[in-house]
Amino acid sequence: MTSLLPAPRRTQEPAAGRTDAAHRRPLVLLAALAGVAAATATLVVCLAGGVAGWFLTDAGAHGAPRDGLRVGALGWLMAHASGVHVAGTAITAMPLAITLLTAVVVWRLGLRLGDSVSGHGPDADAIADGMRDWTVPSATAVFTIGYAVVAAVTHHLASTSATAPSLARTLVWVVLLCGLLGGCAIAVGSGRAAIWTSFLPLSLRAAAAAARRILVWYAAASAVVLGVALVIDWDAAVNVMSQLHTSPGAATLLVGLCVLVLPNATLFSGSYLLGPGFAVGSHTLVTPTAVVLGPLPMFPLLAALPDDGATPGWAPALLALPPLVAALATYRTLGRYPTARWDEAALRGVGAGLLCALAFTVLAALSGGAVGPGRMADVGPFVFSVLLHGIATFGIGSLLGSLAATIRHRRHV
Predict the structure, then answer these.
(1) What is the strand order of the sheet 278-280 is part of?
(2) What CA–CA distance (Å, rounded) separates 60 from 52?
(3) Same domain, residue pair 100 and 138
(4) Residue 85 φ then ψ, to 5°
């Protein structure tokens, strides 16, 4: 991998990575195995979880282990946007905890695959001179095909006419996951990303770094707010569990289901803090300034919802949290990219806010979907409003943070 980093001077000696036999194995074989391994790793976890859930439900008194395996496989497909039908009702919401796990595995194996194929194609000097390099696109394509094959086989074995998960949606998600995230990981692991990004303007790299930190910090802040809300209404969550009259095994399974949708709830919390809020059923609204709820299913995580009706006087003050997080994150990040120009600082700050708003909106869109019949077919953040509020909120906050970083820099020069 290090052989592909830009060299300070031209040299005719062969790069070390190109003469290492471990980095010269066939690209097609390495990429295909990596794609299959990335899909299989998380699939096995879901299959084990399905069997565990089948046993916890009634200690294996009904059905067979293969039923648990099928449920686990369907859960894995749902994490890839396949959707599923339960008693004739479409469930399209994705369990983002599993989706996040698949993304982490794809990233990690993509990095390893990139390092393994770093010796393929032209070296850094040739790439810098403009020679075409198909190493990363080729590895990404084969990696995606390997992953897609596992997804197609899983769909064939697990789907029934009653559940009817969508293979087309699954394959589209696989292409996006492996093509974008996996491709970036392969580019980073192979060293190509270091070469390509060196040609990008410094302002764009600084804005992207700030946007990444804003998104991570804001997700953490949203999770903290969700946790505090759940602790405050902990008695309501316990009351839901008691009314369900679940056995210890079934209660454990229900808690596990809550864990699977915690990332979804965190994104709901983030949309709430931005102002537009989210819906928990048709004609419902949950925002810091108004809460309109109807009948809700008995699910412990819903205890974190605020009470129906007028909100407390302090609730609108939560709207100050997103710009504060954006300002602090941008200030910390752009301190590593100092500039004394006000226009440059403004461009970086606004760009960081815009990129973060776009990224959060995409995640918010993935967090919602149908979770039941009737009114529960409309659950999730108000995506377009989240985008507009995110651009304004993150943009203003990151602009202030960038200007503050520039003031600090100008004082020390």
Answers:
(1) 291-292, 285-286, 278-280, 379-381
(2) 10
(3) yes
(4) -110, 130
| Rounded-to-integer distance, Cα 100 and Cα 106, Å | 10
3-state secondary structure of 297: coil
Among the three residues 199, 214, 231, which one is the final residue of a domain in this structure?
Answer: 199
Among 321, 309, 315, smallest CA distance to 270 is for 321
Residue with tokens 């859960």: 75
Rounded Cα gap, residues 125 and 117, in angstroms:
17
183 burial type by CB count under 10 A (0-12 exposed, 13-18 middle, 19+ buried): buried
CA angle (380, 386, 390) in 5-degree steps: 145
Inside any domain, residue 4? no
Q: Is 130 left (phi over 0), alpha (psi -120 to 50) or beta?
A: left
- Residue 373 β-bridge partners: none
Q: What is the pTM assigned to this prediction?
A: 0.89
Task: Walk along the chain (413 residues) in steps of 10 and give the mean pLDDT of each run.
Answer: 41 44 73 95 94 75 78 94 90 94 96 86 60 82 96 94 93 95 92 81 90 96 94 85 78 87 95 94 90 87 87 90 95 85 90 96 94 88 95 95 88 74
User: Is 16 in contact with 118 (CB distance < 8 Å)?
Assistant: no
What range defines the domain where residue 264 resides?
A: 204-411
